Amino acid sequence: MKKLMLMAVTILFSVATVFAANSTHPLSDTIKNKNVKPAKVRYTCTMHPEVISDKPGKCPKCGMTLVKKVDAKKKPVAKMKM
Description:
Elements: H1 2-23, H2 29-32, E1 43-44, E2 52-53, E3 67-68
Antiparallel strand pairs: 1-2, 1-3
């Protein structure tokens, strides 16, 4: 009888822990920021940063392929899992 009671308490505690852990997760970014407009993608030349375009293509000065421009403030930050 003691083993049965101990097993029941253990299972109840495990189920309660799982439900508590799932309910404390913060909302994802897609749910929080529904009204945020996506930023315009801009393309620039790696050799001539003053050349900026709204669409991919070639640099008019050197002919290199334009790459997506990343603002210094908005660089993606790698999140560490713990």
